[in-house]
Amino acid sequence: MLSFCLMSRLATTGEVLQLIRSGEAATRADLGRVTGLSRPAVVHRVTELLQRGLVVEDAEGPSTGGRPPVRLRFNAAGGVVPVASLGASRTQIAVCDLSGAILDRTEVVIDVEEGPDVVLPLVMDTWEKLLNGRAPVVGVGLGVPATVEFAAGRTESARVMAGWTGVEIPPLIAARYPVPVLVDNDVNAIAMGEHRVAYAAELGDLLFVKVSTRVGAGVISNGAILRGALGAAGEIGHIPVRDGGGVLCRCGNTDCLDSVASGTAILRHLRAKGRDVHSLADVTALVRAGDAETMAVVRQAGRWLGEVISGAVNLLNPAVVVLGGDVAEMFQPLVSGVREIVYRRSTQLATRTLRIERTRLGPAAGLTGSALMVIDQILAPEAI
């Protein structure tokens, strides 16, 4: 708890805000008791937060004798965070408040391979429409289907956006929105949103696997995103599987998970078997109709996913594996295939309490995660 380490030193204004945001302190008296600050020091810090619009005074709280205390509440409406989650098949765009809640959102069809000069202005124009005169923009968050050098916001090894490789995105957005701009891998943002909204209260370790046009993963370790030394953690799409048939992957290797178990791969497998499928919706229709061959293809994709995920489970020991993305959300046979292999091949201890579940948030997770990524930075005690 934050309060545990504050009694030995003076709490900063940022730490006072954290106590109010977390609910540890709801009145000026609470703040004095938790931090050990004098009454004038508490008043000074609270006044600063009130003036900056980060805290508001609520109706009077319950009295314990005498005048009831005025309660303090974090003001989630004190600013807005435009966010976007770029994808190969669809892009989610939204505006969030300072709690990460989505105020307005839309989905647009953008060919991300047209490059940042085309895509980013379209995203920013869409933000402008969604903002519609709302509170000041305090930060911008973006999730992209690429490995991202997080500190610089530079995209590398783009999975579906070859024209973006080596592009430093924040300056391109900051030219229009002069606020902190944070960019991360799309699955990292999804993992953060899924964890913080659906799981943070019960567990700290989560593996999110997105199965859509491509395959990627986001790792939450002890409540925080695990990015690795250069931001390349979670790129499970380029781990080879056994008996994949020698399929050439776009990375140059053969039988990568991307090339045999993604939505693109499932469509290719079914077309090779004579099925007239043009989209995942066509595959869904065949699964619902009970087409045995289609269900077998989907379940095999799940087994290949399970083969790679089982290695990640042994290595990371997550409390839950969450499967998301269009493919995982549509096809129960795929989820069953993952469970079959993971529970068979992972160690007994790693799977003793392991849960394998479908996403609880769906497409909203990437938007919420992108907002939280920004909020965590701009409202960190040292930033305040």
Relevant terms:
384 residues; alpha/beta; Arc Repressor Mutant, subunit A; Nucleotidyltransferase, domain 5; five-stranded mixed sheet; 13 helices; 19% strand; globular
Give the structure's gist in a few sentences.
With 384 residues, the protein is α/β, with parallel strands linked by helices.
Helix/sheet category: alpha/beta
- Using the 3D structure, state the CATH architecture of the largest domain: 2-Layer Sandwich
How many distinct helices? 13
Strand order of the largest sheet: 5-4-3-6-9
Note the overall shape.
globular
**Overall residue-averaged pLDDT value:** 91
Number of domains: 3
The ordered H/E elements are: HHHEEEEEHEEEHEHEEEHHHHEHHEH
CATH class of the largest domain: Alpha Beta
The CATH homologous superfamily of the largest domain corresponds to ATPase, nucleotide binding domain
Query: How far is the N terminus from the C terminus?
Result: 19 Å
**Helix share bin:** 25-40%
User: Which fold name corresponds to the CATH topology of the largest domain?
Assistant: Nucleotidyltransferase, domain 5
Rg over alpha carbons = 23 Å
Q: Could you tell me the strand content as a percent range?
A: 15-25%
